[in-house]
Design goal:
Distance between the termini: 69 Å
Number of domains: 3
Number of helices: 17
Largest sheet: none
Order of helices and strands: HHHHHHHHHHHHHHHHH
Oligomer: single chain
Radius of gyration: 31 Å
Helix content: over 70%
Mean pLDDT: 79
């Protein structure tokens, strides 16, 4: 007991009571800093990564609601208004916005135009085509093909690429930028003050540090722009459509996996419309509109012009796909039983599989390229700095 009593005054001298008070006061600030620096970025990354999937999930939910309503003999407008009156939050904010437009007296197609964030442009165009066809249920399978989830490997590759772009690349660019501003000039001053000869590689790196950093920052900025287009979705991409030239649509058409999905969308809607008895020229025009892509609309316009000149549909579609595969598939589908949609389903699944494969390969290639590029830049800067140190040591030994 006596030992414990003698120790307490010593502890009181070592641990200042004011320290506990300061710790209690600083605890909320430290917790807020930890949340801001660790938790908040993780929550933000999760929100950004899942944004495209949540958009697709909301669209799939709406298609299920439409199908159930039509099976019950209920119109789409009635279904939307009944769910809005129940204040169902699972359908999303834009669903209630569409319901508000419907309550004001506009039709379903007009409500989709007034609330463009509610559905992806392709799905909205397909539903309008279904309304014009008189049977929305016919277009629902084609809508679900567009919203089909990619394989787990594709999602993992894309998410890993986004993580590298949004986290690893900014940190790397920041560190190397600080080195180029505060560290490399000091090494240059040392070399100039001692009048020593450096390696050619070191001289090249020090002479072109700004260009090397500018190239890395330009690559990083381009990848951030592409990432913003992916996360923002089709509506965000529309902000970059130039007047007189659809830049975003042109880029989408020239990206291999996106072009395959646009071909699948056009082919699937054309098959549905032809099976529904829509005239060929009108079916081609509506199928082009359902792609929500100006390049596809222009190519569909050439198909319509060819049909109006008396050319058969199988030959007219060459204006949409110059490689001839669509022509061959449609020619076979015209002689198959069960309609165009059934005959072309296998081709649509093949286009989907190839698109996912190319997207995954591109994601892995871009991620590997970013890591290699950053590694090469780090290696060049490190080699240049060690070159200065070695030159300084040789200079000192020679004295």
């Amino acid at each position: 007991m006596h030992g414990a009593i003698t120790v307490l005054p010593v502890l009181g001298q070592i641990v200042d009571p004011g320290f506990f008070v300061i710790s209690i006061l600083l605890a909320p600030l430290l917790l807020a800093a930890w949340f801001t620096g660790v938790v908040a970025p993780m929550v933000l990354l999760h929100f950004l990564f899942t944004l495209p999937m949540r958009r697709a999930e909301r669209a799939r939910l709406f298609l299920d609601l439409v199908e159930d309503a039509l099976k019950r003999g209920q119109s789409i407008e009635q279904m939307i208004l009944s769910l809005a009156r129940d204040r169902d939050r699972t359908v999303g904010m834009h669903f209630h916005l569409v319901a508000a437009y419907l309550e004001s007296g506009v039709g379903f197609n007009q409500a989709l135009d007034l609330a463009p964030q509610f559905l992806p442009p392709q799905i909205a165009a397909m539903l309008r085509a279904g309304q014009n066809l008189g049977d929305v249920r016919r277009v629902l399978p084609a809508c679900r093909e567009i919203l089909r989830d990619g394989p787990a490997g594709v999602r993992s590759a894309v998410h890993y690429m986004l993580l590298v772009i949004l986290f690893f690349s900014p940190v790397f660019v920041g560190i190397v930028s600080l080195e180029s501003v505060y560290v490399i000039p000091r090494f240059q001053d040392v070399a100039a003050g001692m009048d020593i000869t450096v390696w050619p590689l070191t001289a090249f790196v020090f002479a072109h540090t700004g260009w090397l950093m500018g190239f890395d920052v330009a690559v990083f900025a381009a990848l951030i722009f592409v990432t913003a287009l992916y996360i923002g979705g089709p509506r965000f991409a529309r902000f970059f459509q130039l007047r007189g030239f659809p830049l975003a649509d042109w880029i989408a058409w020239h990206i291999s996996w996106k072009r395959k999905r646009l071909q699948r969308t056009f082919s699937a809607m054309l098959a549905v419309l032809l099976d529904g008895g829509v005239p060929e020229a009108e079916a081609a025009r509506l199928a082009g509109d359902c792609t929500a892509n100006e390049i596809c609309r222009a190519r569909a316009g050439r198909v319509v012009a060819a049909l109006q000149q008396g050319i058969k549909m199988e030959d007219a579609v060459r204006a949409f796909d110059h490689k001839g595969e669509f022509h061959w598939r449609l020619s076979n589908a015209a002689h198959a039983r069960g309609g165009f949609a059934t005959a072309l389903r296998g081709w649509h699944e093949t286009l989907d599989a190839k698109a996912f494969q190319q997207e995954e390969a591109t994601a892995h290639t871009v991620t590997t390229g970013i890591v290699i590029l950053n590694g090469v830049l780090v290696g060049l800067i490190a080699t240049a700095m060690f070159g200065i140190l070695i030159a300084v040591l040789r200079w000192q030994l020679s004295q």
